[in-house]
Amino acid sequence: MLYKPVVYVTRSLPVPGPTLLSKYCHIDMNDSVIPISKRQMIEKAKEVDAIVCMLGDKIDSEVIYSAGNSCYSAGYDHVDLEAATNMKIVVTNTPDILSETTADLTFALIFAVSRNVVKGDYYVKNAKWKFGWTPDLFLGTDVYGKVLGIIGLGNIGTKVARRAKGFEMDVIYHNRTRKYDLESKFGLRYVDFHELLRRSDFISIHVDLNKDTYHMISFDELKKMKNTAFLINTARGKVVKEKDLVHALNKGLIAGAGLDVYEEEPVARESPLLKTSNAVLLPHLGSATQETRSRMAEMAAMNVINFFRQIGPVHRVNYIHW
Question: What residues contact residue 216 under an 8 Å CB cut-off, 6+ apart?
């Protein structure tokens, strides 16, 4: 490969991503954690051969139609795939890397909401614990032996189910297609969507965002849940209608929620979600471990390198007829 492609990286990429890219490409990287403006993104797209972008970067049709060559992404909910395909721009992602890490975080949220972990931490650190052990202090609910309902039994949902069996939870699931092999392997039971809502003590969401899953959890679904149940979302924020969730939390229709994703990120300071007392809110930490982010960076870099060298795997999410 005599010509070294120019690659723009929209924000600081963990090692070994930059090191790998620099062997085969010229890198222009935004070292700030703050995303650039849309106008700046359009100008960059005109100048480079590839873009390594982050989940928070909106790569819409206006950006894509200004691009001169191929665009790459670590995720693709934020990329206009139709426009990219029309422009013969290849979009890639980093699949099957973050599932274990996100499954861990799912259980962190399950325990945080059910056992008052965050409230207890605040209570101790702010010197409010004055009387030692008392029998009614921050009473929570057991996780052991409860019913866990999983919506979406893909890679992450399966790993959550596997962890749940370690706590002897009764795991039910709903998915577009039944997974008979996983049912027998992990002792799972397939149920229809509405039965899952009614029976679960914890509901964990693990679906992609598309026209069928947009706001799949709204007021009608929330009111079918037990008032002792908890909703966990580490998938995509727009799967849950946030306004309805806030109402359900404030009215006690459900016991609580653990969220890592939101309809708009970052969450606005005036969002009523921030005033709820029975929700644990994280700043999109699903893949946030050093090991996982490093592997994601490596795969994103290798997607770019392998495409231009025309060797090795390129994890495409759109298919182009040249």
Answer: 151, 207, 239, 240
For residue range 269-284, list pLDDT tens digits in order. Answer: 999 999 999 999 999 9
What distance in Å separates the CA atoms of residue 107 and residue 139, rounded to the nearest whole number? Answer: 19
- Give the closest residue to 92 by CA, choosing from 283, 322, 320: 320
Asked if 174 and 193 touch (Cβ cutoff 8 Å), the reply is: yes
Q: Which of 105-119, 151-165, 191-205, 298-312 has the lowest mean pLDDT?
A: 298-312
The 8-class DSSP code of residue 275 comes to G
Average pLDDT over residues 210-229: 97
pLDDT of residue 70: 46
For the segment 91-145, what is each residue's pLDDT rounded down to a tens digit? 999 988 999 999 999 999 999 999 999 999 999 999 999 999 999 999 999 999 9
What tokens appear for 184 in the block?
A: 């027998």
Two structure tokens written together for 176? 């577009």
Query: Do residues 188 and 203 touch, judged by C-beta distance below 8 A?
Result: no
Residue 256 token pair = 């609580």
* Structure-derived torsion over alpha carbons of residues 100, 196, 75, 32, reported in degrees to the nearest 10: -80
Q: How many residues does the chain have?
A: 322
Q: Which sequence positions are flagged as catalytic?
A: 236, 265, 284
Q: Any idea what DSSP says for residue 93?
A: -
Going across the sheet that includes 256-259, the strands are 189-190, 170-174, 147-151, 202-205, 230-233, 256-259, 279-281
